[in-house]
Amino acid sequence: VLGLLVWALIADTTYYLHAAYGWVMFVSIFFWILTILFFVTYLLQLQLKFYMIPWPLVLMIFNAAATVLYVTAFVTCAAAVQPTSWRQWDYNRRAAAAFFACLVMITYGASTFFSFRAWKGLGSNAATSQVTDHA
Question: Which of 63, 67, 99, 101 has minimal CB crowding within 10 Å?
Answer without folding.
Answer: 99
